[in-house]
């Protein structure tokens, strides 16, 4: 992109140009835990990810040049080294633009995905969908394919609505007689997909909108779907729809609107309730630390780890109570409205991994007493190197959740050729209050609800939240193959656990 065009896209207040992508390196992972502990205001992406590579450990973060200077002064270079990777700034010049106007004409023109195109057909999807286009794409899908849409009950701080849909192979007009009093058939939806909870993770809503568009198009036109080197038959399309998919493409519209307007890598929602006057970064809650899963981390976790933050200026600020935010309450409402949901994926970027339960500590299947509801272990959860506490998961559940992650990532790799790694969500560092863990924990708390296997899918490359146009298209191909495989595997493993 020409420089002039770039400046047209980035408003004067953009701060992304002062943001550097860095990697901390250390022989000993506990040194990196110490970095997180003493710098919990830094931006570590969706969660701090410590990876082992070639005899050392690495931790990615986004920092300003001032923060980098402070870090360099405070860290002992014999223990922790810092690599500065300037690719974020270089990539910034090639960042895919955000759409202007409304390509779906207020719902008159239906979106069409990449998988349903004829072999060799040249397709230009155009820029990333803006927030209004996500709403009009949903209207257009309802009009074109006659599917059920819903408005979640809780409006955002800025008064925006959160909309979702149901793709289950049935048309509204076919369902007459089968509906309950409220007009919805609510007993046959087993899959739940969401995206856009972290505002800056560009392309997440697009991945989902285009996938659903493909499914509905292929269903109607009796075709299959092809994503890169992965192809699925028409029968498989029918099968996937029969599992019943509930989808919300944009769960945090306030945050996404703010990020798209300012290109400032905004992650949280826009609730100012805990904001510190004069500090713009203290607006908003990290919605993916706000779910009722060990939310009050200072009580539940070992003091040596920070699975979230109590500081409103942190990217991981947990809010004022579990489900304090309308956006997270909308997630909770979906499980009540569609009580048979048993598989859930929250779509994020940017890492290239599919995370399965649990995210608070290392899994174990030997001691059911070591579980998140047992107060005897309060203050002990989190450290992954110790054996003081590990989170209980039954052998069968562990096998199932890992099998699904292996199959889905294998399909994504086969489609696009880049790496996606299946792994337990805790990795080498814990999180609290996340959507996937909360979804799985519901049944552990109350055996009368349907057990949900919850996942976090991280598309894209480490800390690269704004894809180039080329990466944007590749992400759609990779994730859409992953979604097909995920639902097919879910059916095979079982829609009831
Ligand atoms: Zn995220």
- Tally of individual helices: 13
**Pattern of helices and strands:** HEHEEHEHHEEEHEEHEHHHEEEEHEHEH
> What spatial form do the alpha-carbon principal axes imply?
globular
Side by side, the strands of the main sheet go 5-6-10-7-11-16-12-15
By CATH, the superfamily of the largest domain comes out as: Zn peptidases
Helicity range of the residues? 25-40%
Question: What is the CA-CA span between the terminal residues?
Answer: 50 Å
The largest sheet is: 8 strands, mixed
Structural class: alpha/beta
> Unreliable stretches, pLDDT < 50, 5 or more residues?
1-15, 179-184
Task: Describe the SSE topology.
Layout: H1 3-9, E1 19-26, H2 29-38, E2 50-53, E3 56-64, H3 65-74, E4 80-85, H4 87-92, H5 131-145, E5 148-151, E6 163-167, E7 191-195, H6 204-221, E8 225-227, E9 230-232, H7 234-242, E10 245-248, H8 253-262, H9 297-300, H10 326-337, E11 343-349, E12 353-356, E13 363-364, E14 391-392, H11 395-416, E15 421-424, H12 435-445, E16 453-459, H13 469-493
Parallel strand pairs: 7-10, 7-11, 11-16, 12-15, 13-14
Antiparallel strand pairs: 1-3, 1-4, 2-3, 5-6, 6-10, 8-9, 12-16
